[in-house]
């Protein structure tokens, strides 16, 4: 799968995407990352891509021409690419959205900055994703989040595919939270690993994990329990 990012700060990539499973996928070519400097499309010798707001107001706005020129050029170069603006006003990015995006051959993620992006550039991009209900100062960290969560779903990127179906928001947890995890030592400062996990009884372990997953989800994320009750509610 191919990811392209359009940003005024190309040097921050790959950042954390360069390590761990996604870093290995980038190194092996299972996933491709291309980062493009928006200023290369400024069309002026000062490489300026922002301007003041019409109507007044604090903060500069990213101009429409550099974004439109850049995404038209990239759309012509990358067949079937889906273009998405990172924006606090977009659809909230969830695990279900990551599963939807991994079906795409290529994603072009556009990072806003300053006060945001000219409305005509937003229209040209068409699609928007938010990483949550808070405001970041730029789309780069949000783009990394989308890439990290999506790239690890590309077949072969995570070494043991079972771990993708046995984690939080997966089918085994019915879209809820993962049960507690333990490793050695069996006793740590007086706190013991639950005996069932050391019993070797696979059916009992599976039943304990299901029950713990349900309990953790009810206690920590009751909103997910409500979603699970609605057919297709986690989508
Ligand atoms: C300071 S923010 C602009 C916020 C905008 N003035 C507003 O009130 O909606 C600058 C850029 O950061 C990115 N950004 C901020 N919060 C985000 C979020 N929750 N999800 C995705 N991108 C975000 C967007 O690309 C945005 O254009």
Automatic annotation (TrEMBL):
Any Gene Ontology biological process: tRNA N1-guanine methylation
Major enzyme class: transferase
GO terms for cellular component: cytosol
Catalytic reactions of this protein: guanosine(37) in tRNA + S-adenosyl-L-methionine = N(1)-methylguanosine(37) in tRNA + S-adenosyl-L-homocysteine + H(+)
InterPro entries: Alpha/beta_knot_MTases, tRNA_m1G_MeTrfase_C_sf, tRNA_m1G_MeTrfase_TrmD, tRNA_m1G_MTases_N, tRNA_MeTrfase_TRMD/TRM10
Binding site for S-adenosyl-L-methionine: 112, 131-136
Pfam families (alphabetical): tRNA_m1G_MT
EC identifiers of the protein: 2.1.1.228
Annotated compartments: Cytoplasm
GO MF terms, alphabetically ordered: tRNA (guanine(37)-N1)-methyltransferase activity
Domain tRNA methyltransferase TRMD/TRM10-type span(s) in chain numbering: 1-225
Entry keyword set: Cytoplasm, Methyltransferase, S-adenosyl-L-methionine, Transferase, tRNA processing
Matches recorded under Gene3D superfamilies: 3.40.1280.10, tRNA(m1g37)methyltransferase, domain 2
The keyword Cytoplasm is annotated on this UniProt entry: yes
SUPFAM superfamilies xref list: alpha/beta knot (SSF75217)
Protein family membership: Belongs to the RNA methyltransferase TrmD family.
NCBIfam families: PRK00026.1, trmD
Its biological purpose: Specifically methylates guanosine-37 in various tRNAs.
Subunit structure: Homodimer.
The protein, known as: tRNA (guanine-N(1)-)-methyltransferase
Species for this entry: Candidatus Amunia macphersoniae
Gene that this sequence comes from: trmD
